[in-house]
Structure formats: C-alpha cells, structure tokens
C-alpha cells in the first residue's frame, strides 16, 4: 500500500514538471518572437557603441539648442496696431503675426523631430545595456511574462 501512494506522488511531480516545462517553452518562444520583431525596428542596431554615444551627445546638444530657440521665438509677441490706424497697417500687423506663428510652428516641428531621433537613440542604447549575454538572455526569455 505504501508503494502505491508513493507512485501517485511521483506521477504528480512528473505531471507538474511537464506542465511547467511546456509553459516555460511557450513563454520562451513568445518572448523570442517579440525580440525578433523588435530587432527589425531598430535602425541604429548596426552602429558601434562609441558611435551611438557620440550621436546621442550630438543630438542632445542640438535638441537643447533647438528647444531654447523655440522657447525664445514662442515668447515673442507681435506689436498691435492702434485702432485708428489705416487698414493697410492692420493687414501688415496680421501678416507679421501670421509669419511669426508659422515660424513658431516650424520651430516646434524641427525640435520635435530632433527629440524623436534622440529618444530612438537612447532606446537603442538602453536595449543594448539590458540585453545581457549568454545564459542571462535565455533566463530572461524563459521567465518574463
């Protein structure tokens, strides 16, 4: 009788291990496929670490400079025209305000573009730092839900 209950426990342990192994395999495959898909969306993957750091530094300073110019440009106000002024003066004031608004929008778009590239570069650098090597990669794929 004692050997019969021990065999049931052994079968239960085997079943649990089999289920855990299958679940781990499925999770590993899912994470591996996600990494492959993400690898296809990395335009800076071929750059060396030193080149990537130099690009981040350059884009960081460019982003700061553009942001400063944009804030300076956006802070300017066009001067109004007196109510009793001639209609051509009002049209000139409108044109000045329109040109300034257009310049602010163009500046914002250029700043956003540089900032977007900077974020993508920083993302690539973060992925490289967290990628790990060897057994670490396999354990992460197996255990990440």
How would you characterize the overall build of this protein?
The chain is an all-alpha fold and 145 residues long. The protein folds into 2 domains: 1-41; 47-135. It is 83% helix and 0% strand. The chain contains 4 helices and no strands. The protein starts with a helix and ends with a helix. The model has no long low-confidence stretch (mean pLDDT 82).
Explain the layout of strands and helices.
Elements lengths: L1 H39 L8 H27 L11 H45 L3 H9 L2
Helix pairs in contact: 1-4, 2-3
Largest sheet, in brief, is: none
Order of helices and strands: HHHH
Helix share of residues? over 70%
Tell me the total number of β-strands. 0
Question: Which class of secondary structure composition applies to the elements?
Answer: mainly alpha
Strand residues, percent: under 5%
- Rounded mean pLDDT is 82
The number of helices is 4
- Shape descriptor reads elongated
Summarize the structure.
The protein has 145 residues and is mostly helical.
What features would you highlight for this structure?
145 residues; mainly alpha; 4 helices; 0% strand; elongated
């Amino acid at each position: 009788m004692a050997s019969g209950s021990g065999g049931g426990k052994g079968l239960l342990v085997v079943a649990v291990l089999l289920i855990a192994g299958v679940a781990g395999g499925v999770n590993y495959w899912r994470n591996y496929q996600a990494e492959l898909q993400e690898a296809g969306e990395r335009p800076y993957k071929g750059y060396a670490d030193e080149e990537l750091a130099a690009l981040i530094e350059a884009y960081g300073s460019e982003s700061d400079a553009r942001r400063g110019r944009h804030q300076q440009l956006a802070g300017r106000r066009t001067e109004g025209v007196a109510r009793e002024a001639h209609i051509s003066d009002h049209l000139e004031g409108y044109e000045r305000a329109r040109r300034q608004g257009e310049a602010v929008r163009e500046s914002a778009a250029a700043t956003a573009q540089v900032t977007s590239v900077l974020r993508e570069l920083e993302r690539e650098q973060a992925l490289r730092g967290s990628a790990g090597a060897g057994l670490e990669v396999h354990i992460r794929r197996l255990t990440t839900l």
